[in-house]
Design goal:
Elements: E1 3-10, H1 14-18, H2 23-33, E2 38-42, H3 46-59, E3 61-67, E4 69-71, E5 74-76, E6 81-83, H4 84-91, E7 99-103, H5 110-116, E8 124-128, H6 134-151, H7 158-172, E9 176-181, E10 188-190
Parallel strand pairs: 1-2, 1-3, 3-7, 7-8
Antiparallel strand pairs: 4-5, 5-6, 8-9, 9-10
Helix pairs in contact: 2-6, 4-5, 6-7
Amino acid sequence: MTHPEVFIIESLNPDDERASRFEGRIISDILHLSGKQCEYRYIRTKRELMWAVQTFIDSDFRYLHISSHGNPTTMFTTLDTLPFADFAQIVRPALRNRRLFISACSMTNTALADAIMPGSGCYSLIGPRKDVYFADAALLWASFYHLMFKRNEAAMKRADIIDTVHSVASTFDVPLRYYSASNDVKGYKTRGVKP
């Protein structure tokens, strides 16, 4: 049994750290203002990512939010580069009956869905499909979680996710991709947002 709470793992580059561009911390603060439990972990290395993912598993929280830099093939921590295969190897064991939210430029694509979704038991993968500015990302995700929990504090239902993804993507002009688990050959479908 998991709890409908958000666990945030964030890893940024040194310039972001110096400029205090901690999107995940902002989202965590807003969730706390909304009365939600939220865990926030800042990490800098692949090893710390592994530790944070294990902490997420132990927390029994249902929603994993990753805030980092990325590109169409790679996730970056402050000090390490993780091709999708390496990133997936770390997070897949944590995703059974859970949802993954990615806040990283251009990372949410079919290659990531192929690495994460099939056989993992992950309910969904959602994130931007292009580069996104820090302010837009922080506002988009804070709004997304606020609206989702306002609709239902106990669960994120597919129809509500689709509506909310459309709403925040349109409001902030940030194209999002939403992959959800299915029984088809690939193990997932793109839903709610045109790729």
